[in-house]
Amino acid sequence: MSAHVNHTAEKQDKASLGFWLYLMTDIMLFASLFASYVILRGGTNGSPAGGEIFNLEMIMVSTFLLLTSSLTSGLAFLALKRSDAKRALLLLGATITLGIGFLTLELYEFGELIMHGHGPAHSAFLSAFFTLVGTHGLHILVGIIWAIALGDYITKRGATPNAIRKFSLFTVFWHFLDLVWIFIFTIVYLLGVIS
Amino acid sequence: MNKHSETTQLYIGFAGAALLTILAYVSVTLQWFSAWVTAAFVLALAVVQFLVQVYYFLHLRGEEKPRWRNWTFIYAMIMMIIVVAGSLWVMYNLNYRMGMSGHEMEQELLRQNKKGF
Questions:
Q1: Is the dihedral of CA A165, B72, A36, B24 positive or negative?
Q2: Could you give the number of structural domains in chain A?
Q3: Domain match, B40 and B79 both
Q4: Which residue out of A17, A27, A32, A38 would a mutagenesis test of the B interface target, given it has the greatest number of B Cβ atoms within 10 Å?
């Protein structure tokens, strides 16, 4: 019995460290995209700069959707650790809904920009913008699919040690995406509106 | 650490992040300061919020030795700063040198020659 527990603990430790190392490489991906964006943000090719085409009120709403989903994913993980699968599923459902809301607003924003002639092909600034924000959005999409798969797993098997292990990785991933968003919100949107 | 305090910490992190986000947003929309000060202010708020979320959401602390997570995280942060600051520095220099007129370029090269290698 104790050997089994130790084995599970070791598996948990290795898996979460491996996943953590993946996130560290993801930081490098976002670092290069941020660097490109900051360098290219002045290259607007004669069209309006970021401040004139961004909808800051909407971005504020999506920021809060993502922040709240980060909270609910953490609460869901704690509920799962208490073996409260029902509450965990409810909070996971909230996380997924908020994530979908965030992604919908982002797609709406992209659609609006493209419709008004501010598509990614128009200028270096817009290429860098769509790449940076779109890469983050793609991560969110992957997170939503992962969360749905987790919800299915927990529905079928309950709050097993395996479910908790899988869920802990998802929570870290989801918190990480919110961390990246702080800087997208500040560097792309707030600084874009200032200058 | 008991479960109650873990939940409380999530709420503290959320409240802190929300407050910092609103503060940054308001300082920009109400134009409290001049453009440069506002830029520095919101960047500082972003760094504070980053630390708040790392502490209260990611729980990146109290790890047992050999502290792989902490060290790889610090390593990634250092590499990130090198990539971002290095790119900006190189590109600023490039812009500066490429943006000169013929006469300015000649003067610049003469200055560089005087300095030697």
A1: positive
A2: 1
A3: no
A4: A27
Residue B58 has its nearest CB partner, among A78, A175, A190, at: A175
Assess B80–A contact: CB distance below 8 Å, yes or no: yes
Together in a domain, B6 and B54 = yes
- Both tokens of A57, joined, read 């009120």
**Is the same domain home to B28 and B46?**
yes
Nearest CA in chain B to A26: B76
Cβ-based neighbours of B32, under 8 Å, separated by 6 or more: B26, B38, B41
> Given A17, A20, A175, which is nearest B57 (Cβ)?
A175
Decide: A17 and A172 in contact? Cβ < 8 Å: no
Using alpha carbons, select from B66, B72, B63 the residue that is nearest to residue A28: B72
Residue A91: the pLDDT is: 97
pLDDT at A1: 47
ipTM of the complex in this document: 0.87
Range of the domain at B41: 1-61
Q: What percent of chain A has pLDDT over 90?
A: 75
Angstroms from B21 CA to nearest CA on chain A: 8
For chain B, what is the domain count? 2
Supply the DSSP string of A119-139, one letter for each residue: -TTS-HHHHHHHHHHHHHHHH
